[in-house]
Amino acid sequence: MAIKLHGSWMSTATLRVGATLYEKGLDFELVPPFGQVPAFEDGDLKLFESRAITKYIAYKYKEQGTELVGANFSEMPIIGVWMEVEAHHFAGPSTKLVWELCIKPMIGIPVDETVVEEATGKLNGVLDVYEARLAKNKYLGGDEFSLADLHHLPNIRYILMTPKASLFTSHPHVSRWWSDISSRPAWTKAAALSDAAIPKQA
Ligand SMILES: N[C@@H](CCC(=O)N[C@@H](CS)C(=O)NCC(=O)O)C(=O)O
Questions:
Q1: Any idea where the GST N-terminal domain is (predicted)?
Q2: What is the pTM of this model?
Q3: ipTM for the assembly
Q4: Does the C-beta of 32 come closer than 6 Å to ligand 1?
Q5: Which atom of ligand 1 is nearest to the CA of 7?
Q6: Is residue 8 within 6 Å of ligand 1 at its C-beta?
């Protein structure tokens, strides 16, 4: 097996890469490491940064599995815009909420309510923009599912387990989009592995 994903199913960044590999129907080995994850090996190529890895998979295996970066050249720029929106506007506040409300309680560190409220306000503003976009488009990149949607899956999954789930449920078009993208078989498979990796509260 040539592809190795160094990571943990609990990690949002590892989940982003795992869901992409499943969309492409690729075989891979998950290698549990220490330090920042994910890291990725495909033969001699070694990569880190989950979004760079998903883009590599989408282009290298373009002819296989789900098309993730646009079948036509004309679709690629809009998908690219929404991948950037995720990375530069959505990821910041949503990752803060995952850390404060999911990871800190799991490892026994007190939650910083100031950070939670600031991140909640910022994420709500971002989701207002998504709501308008998704009122007119089935997916962020247009008519088809793409990496622009997939990159959101891990953080939304964790936030929906917290009292801040209402950020998403209060936006009807965002909720419709989440129901659609989270019911894809590749994501269902990756999320089930993540569920199994999360320590259960006594
Ligand atoms: N921007 C990086 C973020 C990676 C990241 O934050 N990984 C976390 C888990 S989701 C981690 O490995 N933390 C442990 C550490 O930094 O040692 C990516 O998308 O790959």
A1: 1-65
A2: 0.95
A3: 0.95
A4: no
A5: 12
A6: no
